[in-house]
Amino acid sequence: MCGIIGILGQHEVSPQLVEALKRLEYRGYDSAGVATVDDAGRLDRRRAVGKLVNLSDRLVHEPLTGHAGIGHTRWATHGAATEVNAHPHRRGPVAVVHNGIIENFRELRDEVIALGLQPESQTDTETVALLTAWHMAQGLDAAEAARATLARLHGAFALAFLFEGEPDLMIAARKGSPLAVGHGEGEMFLGSDAIALAPFTDRITYLEDGDHAIIRRSGAEIFNAEGRPANREIQQIDVGATQIDKGGYRHFMAKEIAEQPVVLGDALNHYIKGIASSCPMRWIFATWTG
């Protein structure tokens, strides 16, 4: 299960992107990467196969500057776990990260090849970048090009777009795969879940199915599946540190196994009022599982 992070910030974002990706390690991954737009509008990226430490090492030797960026941890689906298949995918002025599956990507890839554009990777995601770049070459601006591309996509996906020459713009889209917008003070964030965003903000807007968002540091404009402006609630969240880190366990899976009694107890307590005060839910779970 891949992970997405996006930041329109006030500080250098590369270190922040990598730290946020570490909080998404629990999803599993086999490659990772980040892309940034610097203050001059230059778009660039770094990718690495394997653990995040490999990406961190690469950024030490080949640093990326900029206050706007997107990052991704990938589980290989279309295409092997190689650097060329790792996200972000960039074609021309567009960089894209993606969770999910583009079901009609072969059809779209044939179309872009017929237009004279040659894919470099084996992934479905690169087709999104290629198609968006082609729309921009036809004179559409970044938002128009992203919308034109989204209208062609079938499947379940979460997407984040970054554009050369646009250090104050990020575009997000959700169909099936979760995606959340985080609200800061003069900063905006994007993440696969609240855990990724917790160190940055506790004010979250969850995109609904079919939504896309035009995100700038001043805020987010959200549009529904019909392209009409949509009001989505800003929620106050509380994600504790114990949910973000491994809590002393070697792996997130070991932590999740150990936490099962507590999680089940909390879930039952939500629906069975009053029991917890007289009988702790952990004791109930231990009694039932005997």
Explain what you see.
The protein has 290 residues and is of the alpha+beta class. It folds into two domains: 3-236, Aminohydrolase, N-terminal nucleophile (Ntn) domain (Glutamine Phosphoribosylpyrophosphate, subunit 1, domain 1); 245-289, no CATH class. It has helices at 14-22, 52-61, 105-114, 125-137, 142-150, 194-197, 241-244, 252-258, 260-271, 275-278, 281-289; strands spanning 3-8, 31-37, 43-49, 68-74, 89-91, 94-102, 155-163, 170-175, 180-183, 188-191, 203-206, 212-216, 219-223, 235-236. The strands form two sheets. It has an eight-stranded antiparallel sheet. A hairpin with a 2-residue loop joins strand 12 (212-216) and strand 13 (219-223). Helix 1 runs antiparallel to helix 2 and helix 3 (105-114) runs parallel beside helix 4 (125-137). The longest helix has 13 residues, at 125-137. The model has no long low-confidence stretch (mean pLDDT 86).
Write the layout of secondary structure elements.
Layout: E1 3-8, H1 14-22, E2 31-37, E3 43-49, H2 52-61, E4 68-74, E5 89-91, E6 94-102, H3 105-114, H4 125-137, H5 142-150, E7 155-163, E8 170-175, E9 180-183, E10 188-191, H6 194-197, E11 203-206, E12 212-216, E13 219-223, E14 235-236, H7 241-244, H8 252-258, H9 260-271, H10 275-278, H11 281-289
Antiparallel strand pairs: 1-4, 1-10, 2-3, 2-4, 5-6, 6-7, 7-8, 8-12, 9-10, 9-11, 11-14, 12-13
Helix pairs in contact: 1-2, 3-4, 4-5, 9-11
